[in-house]
Amino acid sequence: MRKKIFITVISVFSVLALLSAGVILLGRRWLNSEDTSVFSENGGRITVLAAGFDRAAENTDVLMLLSFDAEAKQINIMQIPRDTYLSAGTAQNKVNQIFPKARSGGNSSGEGMLALARELSKTLGVRIDRWAAIDLDAFSGLIDALGGVTVDLPCDMKYRDPIEDLYIDLPKGEQTLNGAAAVHFIRYRAGYIEGDLGRVDAQKLLLAATFKKMRSVGGKQLVTSILPVVYPYIESDLPLTTAMAMAQTFFRDRSSFTLHLMTLPGEATRGGESGGLWYYVANRASSEEMMHLYFGAEAAFDPERRLTDAQRVNFENIYSDKKISYPVYTEETVGELKVRVKNRQSG
């Protein structure tokens, strides 16, 4: 598997839309009950784990859980911060280290993703049906093929990293981003007070904007302009026929579908009471509620208490505290999201 640094679930979903449009335009019916059983037997709900990787290693620095619910007409996306504490026998017990641990034994990337999906399914109490990953090149190509997306940037984004040949210079305010600029937007984090958590929130702005643009795209444009760019770069165990069933369902009634964007409820804290590595610790009560309301969870949440460390008081305070409030954004309300930025930006 190529080194990957980012995935957006909307890019994955766009591929599903492309496949659907191709079926509709060609007038062919490729669906069969066996291949689409995961989708149909669950009342039109399917949950996909999407992951993105850093350049230097195979840490999953971006994790998202996507639930496509045809009956409720909802697409629910939950971001899992890369520093989320999860006791899984890795060096630092962070969720983004599970994939490389699975890969270290000589397993394929698909086996690594399956291992990660199983760990998260057991911990979150959610059935995860499939996994997906996509190259950064596909995301850039998608945005260009859509004609760009309009996003209100929360700050001037200036950053230089000659080693990675990365030079970001985007002005604050409403901008129509092309593919290259969109990639810079999602990689930027230097100016956010909360670092990677700020970037997680900022990504919601781009996810909503991309989803909004997807509603307006016609089937012919999807097949002729976007499919050739995106499809070769996606890696997934999602059957083609299931993808088409999902996409056809969406395009039949795209105006009725609601997008919900959220982050696993919790707080950032140090590994020790007064220092150490930064971790993100989930709040049990709120996370359990989110899994039930938006992802149809029926199994017990974190039955082995792997999302906390009983020896760390600050972890336990966050994990076991009463339910905390958590925002859930839609296309209409994502503009209310206030990403906290520093007074002076890196330049």
Task: Please explain how this structure is put together.
The protein is α+β, with helices and mostly antiparallel strands and 347 residues long. The strands form 4 sheets. A 6-stranded mixed beta sheet has the order 9-4-1-2-3-10, with helices on both faces. Strands 5-8 form a two-stranded antiparallel sheet. It is built from 11 helices and 12 strands. The longest helix has 21 residues, at 196-216.
Content of β-strand: 15-25%
Mean pLDDT: 82
* Low-confidence parts: 1-12, 15-35
SSE-based structural type: alpha+beta
Inertia-based shape: globular
What does the oligomeric state look like here? single chain
How are the strands of the largest sheet arranged? 9-4-1-2-3-10
Q: Mind summarizing the main beta sheet?
A: 6 strands, mixed
Order of helices and strands: HHEEEHHEHEEEEHHHEHEEEHH
Cα-atom radius of gyration: 20 Å
Helix content: 25-40%
Total helical elements: 11
Total number of β-strand segments? 12
Distance from first to last alpha carbon: 33 Å
Question: Which structural traits does this protein have?
Answer:
347 residues; six-stranded mixed sheet; 12 strands; 21% strand; disordered N terminus
